[in-house]
């Protein structure tokens, strides 16, 4: 694949080749402890290295949660930088889960951190928050398009608190979440095999048929595994858009570590179950 190929196209190729699965890399303290590791930089590095070595060559997408690396300061960020580089070198795509959102030059600086090609943290896509107004994301949208990267915009998240904002109704009768989906559909118009600007939509939300999820872009779906959703739930939640779903599993895979073979087996099972459920 050309490095200049847009993220949406690269994502489709990766999921078709390796299976429709995103594995979250969430090294929180309790998980490090469950692996028999200390909650320190050495434990963080051992955990991250094990996940990368076990899965980078077979899983399509990884979503490192930046906060769990940031909490160790510059040494934690160094572990994250190496992980991002090694995952991408192995042919996997990296979605940086940083949920950045701001305005003007600050948003531009966040975009440069994760979406500028020569940045140490350059990722294939970035999660962003649009709740300072969708237009505040324009620096990230523009740089992502220029760099062949993508964005995942928080639209209908699985946390209960999200509903008070995302399901609030505007004067035109449309919810805030639906408005974000409409913005993304416009960004992706005419792109094949799909656009690069996706939405975060929780897999635990049940029937979403009242929302137009056909944004011609990817739908990052957290909530499978420890949060209670299963791959079999995906068609009922996402309907005809299920083929563009990128299901994220974190603890459901990571709890099988530190055994590398067990990690690979768990990731393979989830990918196979998603493929069967989505008819992919």
Main traits of this protein?
single chain; alpha/beta; 8-stranded parallel barrel; 44% helix; globular
In short:
With 280 residues, this protein is of the alpha/beta class. The protein is built from twelve helices and eight strands.
Could you describe the 3D structure shown?
With 280 residues, this protein is an alpha/beta fold. Helix content is 44%, strand content 14%. The chain is built from 12 helices and 8 strands. An 8-stranded parallel beta barrel has the order 1-2-3-4-5-6-7-8, surrounded by 6 helices. Helix 3 crosses helix 12. The longest helix is centred in the C-terminal third of the chain and has 19 residues. It is globular. The two termini are 21 Å apart. The relative contact order is 0.15. The model has no long low-confidence stretch (mean pLDDT 96).
The count of strands amounts to 8
Strand order in space, largest sheet: 1-2-3-4-5-6-7-8
Helix content: 40-55%
The outline comes out as globular
Largest sheet: 8 strands, parallel, barrel
What is the distance, rounded to the nearest whole angstrom, between the alpha carbons of the first and last residues? 21 Å
Radius of gyration of CA atoms, rounded to a whole number = 18 Å
Calculate the mean pLDDT score and round it.
96
Tally the helices.
12
Order of helices and strands: HEHHEHHEHEHEHHEEHEHH
Are there runs of 5+ residues with pLDDT below 50, and where? none
Which structural class do the helices and strands define? alpha/beta
Strand content: 5-15%
